[in-house]
Write a structure and sequence with these properties.
6-stranded parallel sheet; alpha/beta; 392 residues; globular; two-stranded antiparallel ribbon; Dehydroquinate synthase-like, alpha domain; 2 domains; 12% strand; homodimer
Chain lengths: 392, 392
Amino acid sequence: MENFIYDTPTRVYFGKGQEKKVGEIIAEYGPKKVLIHYGGGSAVRSGLIGLVEECLKAQGIAYVLLGGVQPNPEIKMVRRGIQLCLDEGVDFILAVGGGSVMDSAKAIANGAANPDVDVWDFNMGKAQPKKTLPKGCILMLAAAGSEMSNSCVITDEEQGEKRGYGSPMNRMNFAIENPELTYTVDAYQTACGAVDIAMHTMERYFCPGEDTYLTDALAEAVMKCTIKAGADCIKNPTDYAARANMMWASSLAHNGLTQCGRQFQLVVHQLEHELSGMDPKIAHGAGLAALWCSWARYVYQANIQRFLQWSNHVWNVDVDYEHPEKTILKAIDLQEEYYRAIGMPTSLRELGVGEESLEMLSDRCSRGKTRTLIGYKPLAYEDILAIYRMAL
Amino acid sequence: MENFIYDTPTRVYFGKGQEKKVGEIIAEYGPKKVLIHYGGGSAVRSGLIGLVEECLKAQGIAYVLLGGVQPNPEIKMVRRGIQLCLDEGVDFILAVGGGSVMDSAKAIANGAANPDVDVWDFNMGKAQPKKTLPKGCILMLAAAGSEMSNSCVITDEEQGEKRGYGSPMNRMNFAIENPELTYTVDAYQTACGAVDIAMHTMERYFCPGEDTYLTDALAEAVMKCTIKAGADCIKNPTDYAARANMMWASSLAHNGLTQCGRQFQLVVHQLEHELSGMDPKIAHGAGLAALWCSWARYVYQANIQRFLQWSNHVWNVDVDYEHPEKTILKAIDLQEEYYRAIGMPTSLRELGVGEESLEMLSDRCSRGKTRTLIGYKPLAYEDILAIYRMAL
């Protein structure tokens, strides 16, 4: 087991009606002015933004609004938000939405607190934020796990680049999680969420590490419960138990719990970021589903034992010790069938990505053939290209 | 699933050599003077207290020492610590030891920050601390989970009363967890720790609650891994993987993770506190082992389904749907065999407790017949007495 630091300071208010506490909760931070940051019209139409405004007014807290965050949030919007904060004296950021809004809010908080640094440098790994503004969120989508994660992923659409980075500055101070607020999320977005949630933990599970059987068992619990919750949410969008277990899985899958004692990199996420960085219409979860099984078939031989454990513990496949590869390939097939059953793609063509883009994507993902992704089988440019080809 | 607040702000530094960072870590809080609080001679003899002193000196941080905390920490020591803090201007508390030292440190931090309140009133539920001093710990024993919990249990030996209370003020700011520091813990104390760790989560698991399948799966993971890790630690006290998984389980079993969405009370803990409150020579973990199986046999019929799930998921007993009671009683027997196998008592007589004490213990545990413990089968005075009798 490797040494680790476990640091999950985000206070979660979970359950029905919790969003009504937002005024009291933010008042604890004594802010001068709050930026309410959100995405499309649904936050407004549902009445949630109106409720937040009422709650802040009731506490005598001033605020400004900034809506319009797009999926795969853009650096342009982040720059606009930072300027607004500086102009208006904003000292607290509230994200109302899903992962895109939360990541945009994190980037704004880091940019506004470090106005002498170009905020894109944080995403490009050229600088690390030393301070940030306090921030919280009201979750409208169970997917990204950004509500408890230390991650912030932003896209520069002009360059076609999508880049994430980890920092303690990226932790939300609080997260309000009411599963009922996700009842109206459609089947496709719900499925994308189920893929992304499980993937955050599945990727950690397949990072190198030894003797982490407690972490392993927790990870297997998160993966299995997300498989069930995702399917149940699609079957019945107002199934509170399903929405609640999925939302809580979203937070635990990506807050660090399931990586303790293991190496860490979200490898298939790196492969996917190039897809949705190139074409922002590609939903992140769909891109992950299109890639994962090809990744698994490409790398599994590097650690048969690990993939056997996963096959047995997560997919309940009986282990065939004489032909362990059969066991593993069967479990990967089950994973693929699950993706199809919840309406997810399992190939790049379904996302409109063709052979002509693969070398460019591989070049970007390997940072011009300079970066190798970690894993039981490390992945350099040629490996990345091979996986994209298998996924076609 | 019930609404909940999840709040685990303790930053954990886990792994080999982490205790050497203690000076740098405490320096972040900019304290004027630190109280180094510890128990018996082993913290000194092992060189750990000396190392802490060196680390603080290297950072130019002043400190005072207070050792001598006993198992089942006493209110007398807490009062002494508070006076020392007030006299010396201490504004940071460092606990070096196990649960007793950590709980004593928490009580001192709360008492010193609220000098106008009698500190025992917090434990008696007559007052709640509104503020506290920042505090951290270096763990020398994996058992109590106090390093991440919101709990603080103190004994008034003169009155024979042992009382715990939960408060956000009881959370450590940081915990340093180096599994190697527990290599010298003897087999009996290691077994007591394994019982206590699993019990923190097992008690949560049997509190009322519905539709918490993610929480359930995480709890089952913690219970199963603790069963394995505890036995492995006793087999080989310097098995790093076993000590590490056990130590990490200690923190997760009691930080709130395994209760999300369920009601909460540590019922068998309440029964046990009367034993070690009456006789401080009784180790808490041993008292729990002596009681749990009798509690389970007394209450299981109130929720057959829940006990069946536990029997199957934790002890891998095949479910006999025609005779579900057989399945459950078999799993309880396996739990009992496990306790015996690691050298724990499974009856009160083994702890020197006889029939003559049972009415007094029941009266105390029911707070003079005014308190009913929660559960699928709520427990009033007569139930408590019946369980003590079954455990004789």
